[in-house]
Amino acid sequence: MSKGASRIPVALLLPALLGLLFLVLPLAGLLIRAPWRSLPEQLTSAEVWEALRLSLVCATSATGVSLVLGVPLAWLLARTEFPGRRLIRALVTLPLVLPPVVGGVALLLVLGRNGIVGRWLDSAFGITLPFTTTGVVVAEAFVAMPFLVISVEGALRAADPRYEEAAATLGASRLTAFLRVTLPLIAPGVGAGAVLAWARALGEFGATITFAGNFPGKTQTMPLAVYLAMETDPEAAIALSLVLLAVSIAVLAGLRGKWMSTA
């Protein structure tokens, strides 16, 4: 045992090991109980590929929406002073702690056919969001955008504002300074936030099933397919879970330099 390890109090080591086992054993059980022999057949079925395609398309679209709306919002929170900024920041981060099902209900009340905004969208433009593929994107963006906003806001606060001030003295507008100076500086933070938002959107379940339903080929994403398969074909559910596990590991590997550094 190393010198550092010999100093670890037993009262801390035992709970730490129990916590590690608590987190690792379920994942190990997933690998142990995986139907490895039938896995290729499970993963090549039309239902799995349709759910995977829909998940990738919707998660990527939700990430795009989060980038278009979230980056300016993060800039507003990080670079400007206005009354109620703390309240706005709290509201922006609320979906992080809000139960996803509650988020789905809230979306229905606002964007549903009889909702506050949804009624107007339906009557004026014939647009109906609930129980559609677009509804999946909306639900995923709702729960994923806060991850991007927090990451980008942190990157903006860490970036030196003097570069923007120097650009302004050279005649650049605030928008030009943001696009040509600030955005390249915070690109790693934007990338990390986009990956986190994409991963959160890919794994979204509660808000999606509440707001968009569970219709194969239309709104049934991978998490919903896992839920349905658990009732009829547990081996298929395990196979689908392995795909999502592999994606999660890939996300962690891609972010290891930002989130897993020990320096």
From TrEMBL:
<keyword id="KW-0500">Molybdenum</keyword>
<dbReference type="InterPro" id="IPR006469">
    <property type="entry name" value="NifC_ABC_porter"/>
</dbReference>
<keyword id="KW-0813">Transport</keyword>
<keyword id="KW-0472">Membrane</keyword>
<protein>
    <recommendedName>
        <fullName>Molybdenum transport system permease</fullName>
    </recommendedName>
</protein>
<feature type="transmembrane region" description="Helical">
    <location>
        <begin position="177"/>
        <end position="199"/>
    </location>
</feature>
<dbReference type="InterPro" id="IPR035906">
    <property type="entry name" value="MetI-like_sf"/>
</dbReference>
<feature type="transmembrane region" description="Helical">
    <location>
        <begin position="90"/>
        <end position="111"/>
    </location>
</feature>
<comment type="function">
    <text>Part of the binding-protein-dependent transport system for molybdenum; probably responsible for the translocation of the substrate across the membrane.</text>
</comment>
<dbReference type="Pfam" id="PF00528">
    <property type="entry name" value="BPD_transp_1"/>
</dbReference>
<dbReference type="InterPro" id="IPR000515">
    <property type="entry name" value="MetI-like"/>
</dbReference>
<keyword id="KW-1003">Cell membrane</keyword>
<dbReference type="InterPro" id="IPR011867">
    <property type="entry name" value="ModB_ABC"/>
</dbReference>
<keyword id="KW-1133">Transmembrane helix</keyword>
<keyword id="KW-0812">Transmembrane</keyword>
<feature type="transmembrane region" description="Helical">
    <location>
        <begin position="54"/>
        <end position="78"/>
    </location>
</feature>
<comment type="similarity">
    <text>Belongs to the binding-protein-dependent transport system permease family. CysTW subfamily.</text>
</comment>
<feature type="transmembrane region" description="Helical">
    <location>
        <begin position="236"/>
        <end position="255"/>
    </location>
</feature>
<feature type="transmembrane region" description="Helical">
    <location>
        <begin position="131"/>
        <end position="156"/>
    </location>
</feature>
<feature type="domain" description="ABC transmembrane type-1">
    <location>
        <begin position="52"/>
        <end position="253"/>
    </location>
</feature>
